[in-house]
Amino acid sequence: MSRRCLPASERARLDPFIVACGDASPRDQRDLMERPFFSLAKSRRTAPILYEAGGVRVEVFAVPEHGMATIWDADILIWAAGQIVEAENHGLRTSRFLRFTPYHLLTAVGRQTGASDYRLLKAALARLQATSIRTTIRQGEHWRRHQFSWVNEWEELTRLDGRVEGMELVLPDWFYRGVVDRSLVLAIDPAYFRLKGGIERWLYRVARKHAGYQPQGWLFDIPHLHRKSGSLARVSDFALQLRRIAARQPLPGYRLRIERSGRQELLRILPAKLSTISGDGSVDGLGRSHADALGRSHAAPSGYHTQDPQLSLWPETAIPSLNLESNRESNLMLAPQAVGERCNDSREGCAQADEAPADRSREVAGGRPRAEATVSDLQAWDHPPGGGEVP
After folding, report:
1. Which residues on adjacent β-strands are paired with residue 362?
2. Residues near 267 by Cβ (< 8 Å), separated by ≥ 6?
3. Distance between CA 271 and CA 213 in Å, rounded?
4. Distance between CA atoms of 66 and 149, rounded to whole angstroms?
5. How many CB atoms lie under 10 A from the CB of residue 44?
6. What's the CA gap between 35 and 375, in Å, rounded?
7. Per-residue CA distances from 65 to 45, 152, 222, 269, 376 (Å)
């Protein structure tokens, strides 16, 4: 009996994009900034996110073994987007197949580089791969739904003593297309990586996407923000956390202000002094979460990416040329209205919120995606287990 041939790895069909340096301005993908794609909790979440607004649907499913990918795990995607954009700015070819050293990734997002940090990095990659996303965002005329995971596959290169020397991962085409289309990417402040709470991290991304640098900022009603977050917390608890965040003012580049319109509670997001952040989102040095000390990668500028195997960790791979067809759809912000403008009811959200007037979300138990990776360490990346959503 002939042995059945296993399908070749996706990496065998893609040119490797070798990340030889770590420094690049972090970039975030617009679609991920304004819709609920990640868990905001440190504890393992298995309840799916089911969100629909303005004809756009987002469904996120987790498996009990790993739990849903968290907003801290998304730092890997932000780092990857920054590296891809930086390379393309220098006229270099990129790919959704990345080769890199974990040291460069960890230092770029403000993590330490001890053995436990490498284990947490692998646990984060496992959650990103095991989380399944279904969405109608950026679909063609005859396509209605796209299903993928945040990481198609990943692998590590280790020495005999177990030390990790290099890693490879393959990003989904949906995410990669949203990064190479410059209209769908925004630079973010590197100080974002120092934000400790899941809700405040999510809130910064909402602020950067909607308020930007507009003097009047952006106004949301609290129930609308709650639906956009995908949070499992009650609306009243979510509102309390927003008040606490507004009292602390932790968001880099933005100020938060609680307002009221009759009995309706609103959150206004205003840009702070713009002198501390450039158009590339480049400000203070990178910092590690939960630490005062700052840390930066010691690599040269990331413009020196190349397709040659500089790291000498992997053999050369030949594949057909890349499909870099850019997506033309853009989620541009609506112009803000006057401060005193009243908002519609909670079904429609605030008149100054995003382009989705009829926002609704449902969170139910269940979900049945597959698990594609197994790790024993399921601790939230750079955060201890236990506890709910941290403001």
Report:
1. 50
2. 219, 220, 221, 222, 225, 242, 246, 256, 257, 258, 259
3. 6
4. 13
5. 19
6. 28
7. 10, 18, 33, 37, 9
Asked if residue 121 has pLDDT above 60, the reply is yes
Query: Strand 254-261 vs strand 153-158: parallel, antiparallel, or unpaired?
Result: unpaired
Q: Parse the chain into domains and list their residue ranges.
A: 11-323+335-362
Query: What residue ranges in the chain does DSSP mark as E strands?
Result: 17-18, 27-29, 49-53, 56-61, 97-100, 132-135, 146-149, 153-158, 164-170, 185-187, 218-221, 254-261, 264-271, 359-362
Q: Is residue 120 a contact partner of residue 137, using CB atoms and an 8 Å limit?
A: no
> What does 163-219 look like in DSSP terms, one character per residue?
-EEEEEEE--HHHHHHHHSGGGEEE--GGGGG---HHHHHHHHHIIIIITT-TT-EE
pLDDT, position 325: 32
At 212, which amino acid appears?
G
- pTM (2 decimals)? 0.71
Looking at the chain, how many residues does it have?
A: 391
Q: How far apart are CA 364 and CA 351, in angstroms?
A: 28
Cβ–Cβ < 8 Å for 179, 81: yes
> Rounded to whole angstroms, how far apart are CA atoms 251 and 204?
6
The yes-or-no verdict on residue 229 having pLDDT over 90 is yes
Of 8-17, 230-239, 366-375, where does the model show the most confidence? 230-239
Residues 6+ apart with CB under 8 A from 129: 149, 150, 151, 152, 153, 154, 372, 373
Give the Cα separation of 350 and 223 in Å (integer).
9
The pair of structure tokens assigned to 145 is 């739904």
Highest mean pLDDT (candidates 225-239, 279-293, 311-325): 225-239
- Which of 173, 106, 103, 99 is closest to 133 using CA atoms? 173
Convert the pLDDT of each residue in 327-370 to its tens digit.
333 232 333 333 333 333 333 334 333 333 333 333 333 443 33
**∠ at Cα 260 (257, 265), nearest 5°?**
85
- Amino acid making up residue 385: P
CB half-sphere exposure, 369, CA atoms < 13 A: 31
Say whether pLDDT at 236 is over 80.
yes
Query: Is 56 strand, coil or helix?
Result: strand
As to burial, measured by CB atoms within 10 angstroms (0-12 exposed, 13-18 middle, 19+ buried), residue 385 is: exposed
